[in-house]
Amino acid sequence: MGEVKSALRSHVGRVRSVNEDYGWVGQLQGGLSAAIVADGMGGHLAGEIASGLAVESLVQSLREWKEDLSAKESEERMRDMIRKANEVVFNTASLNKRYRNMGTTVVVALLNEKEGLIGHIGDSRAYRIRDGQLSLITDDHTLVNELAKMGQLTPEEAQHHPRRNVLTRALGTERDVAIDIRRIDWMPGDQLLLCSDGLSGMVDDEALLSTMTDPSLDLEQKAERLVELALAAGGEDNVTVALVGYEPDEASGGAGGSANGSAGSGPDGGANGNAGSGPDGGANGDAGSGSNGGAEGMPA
Ligand code: CA
């Protein structure tokens, strides 16, 4: 088993004056990790309120999560959790004129050591990065995506369509809402990227992938870099990035490979310092690895 890390960045962007996105990452009981991105809408302060309320409600529900993810009921449980967040936002909007019609997207990921559940409404996205490939897990609930699926727009046209941010579903705008739940497998070496359309609408897949697979960056730096890319592309919208990385054991140089390799190996509990190690300060110095961390790019 590897170690799970997470990173979160949110930025107002270069055009808007208010950040209506909201993100959260964290560890839960039972060794679960979770990440959430919500992108609010509704004008004035309402969008911010909607995404904030939704995330707050979801985090509260996640903290009470006790089931094993592999159980069938876990999908229903996640649906209930999102329904509850929907109700909170919808009720607040109904009770207060200022918040009328507010709503939010939401994408939430809940992960254990071998699989994950992704719940989603709207056009915030989840991608899994594995073996140098970026896979989109969520299906945008947008008008242009519907048209693209019916063959009326090419994916390219959809990507640049002026009305590409018109949603067909949002959390909090109706009493009931359809929720997409997907189950993914999840193993050491995998990374998960959740984002608002302020990232996915501004930065192409190639740049997302090359950032996520850049061995010189740790997870925090990747999150930072993704936000910088969105800003450099114009930063037309709020941008939020939540990353989860499932780091392989004893990952030192990033070159990896180690993922499964060490199966029967020693007691991996120990702090890296390896059997028989003796001298070399234990700095991940692992069999085979040869030159120690950092040496790579050094001028000869
Ligand atoms: Ca947005």
Structural account:
It is a single chain. The chain is α+β, with helices and mostly antiparallel strands and 300 residues long. It has one domain (3-247): PPM-type phosphatase domain (Phosphatase 2c, domain 1), CATH 3.60.40.10. It is 28% helix and 23% strand. The protein has helices at 46-63, 73-95, 143-149, 155-160, 197-200, 205-212, 219-232, 258-261, and strands at 3-11, 21-27, 33-41, 103-104, 106-111, 115-121, 125-130, 133-136, 180-185, 191-195, 239-247. Strands 2, 3, 4, 5, 6 and 9 form a six-stranded antiparallel sheet that branches. A five-stranded antiparallel sheet has the order 1-11-10-7-8. A hairpin with a 5-residue loop joins strand 2 and strand 3 (33-41). Helix 1 (46-63) runs antiparallel to helix 2 and helix 6 (205-212) runs antiparallel to helix 7. Mean pLDDT is 85; it is low at 252-300. The site of calcium ion has 6 residues, from helix 5.
CATH superfamily: PPM-type phosphatase domain
Query: What is the domain total for the residues?
Result: 1
Helix content: 25-40%
Q: Beta fraction of the residues?
A: 15-25%
N-to-C span: 36 Å
Order of helices and strands: EEEHHEEEEEHHEEHHHEH
Bound molecules: calcium ion
Overall pLDDT metric: 85
Total helices: the number is: 8
Give the total of beta strands: 11
| Largest pleated sheet | 6 strands, antiparallel
Determine Rg (CA atoms, Å).
21 Å
CATH class: Alpha Beta
CATH architecture designation: 4-Layer Sandwich
From the spread of the alpha carbons, the general shape counts as: globular
Q: In the CATH scheme, what's the topology name?
A: Phosphatase 2c, domain 1
Structure class? alpha+beta
